[in-house]
Amino acid sequence: MRWEELDREHCSLARTLSVVGDRWTLLVLRECFLRIRRFEEFEQRLGIARHVLADRLKKLTEAGVLEKIPYQERPRREEYRLTEKGLALYPALLALLDWGDKYMSGKEGPPLLRRHKACGHVAHAVTVCSECGEPLDARAMTAEPGPGAPAGFVVPQRPSKSAVDK
Amino acid sequence: MRWEELDREHCSLARTLSVVGDRWTLLVLRECFLRIRRFEEFEQRLGIARHVLADRLKKLTEAGVLEKIPYQERPRREEYRLTEKGLALYPALLALLDWGDKYMSGKEGPPLLRRHKACGHVAHAVTVCSECGEPLDARAMTAEPGPGAPAGFVVPQRPSKSAVDK
DNA sequence: CAGAATGGGTTCCGAAAGGGAACTTGTCAA
DNA sequence: TTGACAAGTTCCCTTTCGGAACCCATTCTG
Known about the structure:
Two copies of one chain form a homodimer.
Chain A: H1 12-20, H2 23-33, H3 39-46, H4 50-62, E1 66-72, E2 77-82, H5 84-87, H6 90-103, E3 112-116, E4 125-129, E5 141-145
Antiparallel strand pairs in A: 1-2
Chain A binds a DNA duplex through helix 3 and helix 4.
């Protein structure tokens, strides 16, 4: 499978990755959520090659995750801002961040904390069920075909042979 | 910045991406959560080049996300299973999946649904504050330095000049 | 017993993507 | 007139990837 084919996969994760499934793209988005908006700022903070940055910003803009907004005319200059679609990636970024805080931080602890404005506490994200509100983990969920499933789609139900799940 | 330097970054997202920030890695993990465990199964389902698959499985194993478990001797064969550390990535995968369901599905709707065993409903993930339980979005959070912050670390507070946030 | 099959890789090649640095363009300020 | 800025673009060289072939220990099939 080539990379350009990913967005035609019948899988929401694959389609998501066709937009953000790249080393640099998620770091660019991290900066966006920290209110970084301009080309040179991205470049300096990330140490990314300029043409790679230009490419990623272009793709994110085309995907509707960022939009270019002029902040001055003559010479025209534009900055990149998250759209609603882009802001909606926050839970995903936060989930990755929290995993890193938990499993990849040195003994000093996480380098950056997030405070919830509404309640005032330093907080991390908890993923809960949209229906019952209980926290979710992998073992609590089963998968089944949805309306967009291709014909003949099979959800693997059990390990190949040795029946019992650890 | 080269890729091997990423895990030394003072940023939990960067460190997370040093493990899973790769096109194929997250798709391999998707398969793991669908209970796919064997080399040939990954290869067939993903259409990934074999040496790339071998490399990703090796890296995920070294990172402690997967572990190799023998399922037969003579000839010895091993399969890859998620560890607790790997299972803990589920909320991140789910968040990316939900974003894809919402923004990248065709008009047919998402191809795969997830049902919460505990409550029986088809559900998606909601990200809530660990302290007050309210749903979180990007605008509800502020960042501040944590215990692992490098000296002189500055959290960008406001857009560079044109003060007002849209 | 020979030969094919199985599972999990490794090797090789040409193509694509990335790192790094230099060059371009439009505009204003000194 | 020269310099500085911001935002790219171009070039060259190295690394990684896609695709196919090959390898190896063991077991099955004829």
